[in-house]
Request: fold
Amino acid sequence: MTNFQKPGNPPGILQESGDPSRGSNPRYLSADSLQSLQLNPREIAASIEHLLLGQKRQQAWNAPKAVITPPDGRYMMATLAAADDPPFLAVKALVLNPDNPQHGLPSINSLVTLLDSRSGLPLAVIDGNWITAVRTAGLSAVAAKRLARPDASIAAFIGCGVQARSHLQAFAALFPLTGVRAYARGPSRDSFCQTAENMRLTAIACQTAEEAIRDADLIVTSVTLSPQLVPFLDAHWLKPGAFVTMTDLAASWLRESMFVLDRIIVDDLEQESRMPKPLADPALVRGDLTGLVTGEALGRQSAGERTAFIFRGLALGDLAVAGLAYQRACEQLPDFPAE
Reply:
């Protein structure tokens, strides 16, 4: 079984295998298989940072999203990212359908195809829902390391679904969390609070979003996108020193309140420049995630700053997690890849 990580590399950072024959018989990595790999938040963040630095060195590339929005409220998207170190290419196709829950399906379903970026040979087909959840929390973690206070102890979650759970795991690994505040309009809130309590955190199920946000150091908003969504979150509720990550394209936030934020970072300035509707007023944006990692964009400058990470999702994040999962599967899973 091939091991693609050279001895001495930092945990979670993939390196070139040098094996041009790999990928002749690609396999499917299901959500259960991916979960069994036990990738931890720190190594996921490290892999994302590695590719962001690689982008600066012209060793990794990230294409802007391709989006289709049919008139019935569906959101269809494709992303593409590639790297020479490690030599991987990832394509993700995703469909968000607000009607899916009525049929017992997740709102979002997606698939990732991983190729060798030199030969073009297929390596694996990977469950995209798992990749999206883990990648999104990983991107938030990379931003939070630079924008949140290191002593952050209370986290608020507006929306208590898959993204809330992924972010809870990531932030609990990076910050000294002691408590959680949760608000959601469906039955997921109580279940999420139970998950937090199982992690030995104090969990409070809040009756309003404002109640959850007011005293929080870290805020995650993952409100399901739909044509009927009306913004209801006010940045004035954020206390001095708070950091918020908006995984919902900031669609749940009142745009007129965003000026309260001292520092807004987006995931990709180039991608953002090509989008018909900006995530935030461009005059308020101080840089992107690559700039944060390379130091070209400033992170938190004072303890009292209110900071935010607003993002659509970065294809390099999908590549980082898919590549890391593929490597770990080659190390740990029997008969993967097939000979």
Summary: Confidence is low (pLDDT under 50) at residues 1-21. The radius of gyration is 19 Å. Residues 67 and 77 are 4 Å apart (CA to CA). DSSP finds nine helices and 14 strands in the chain.
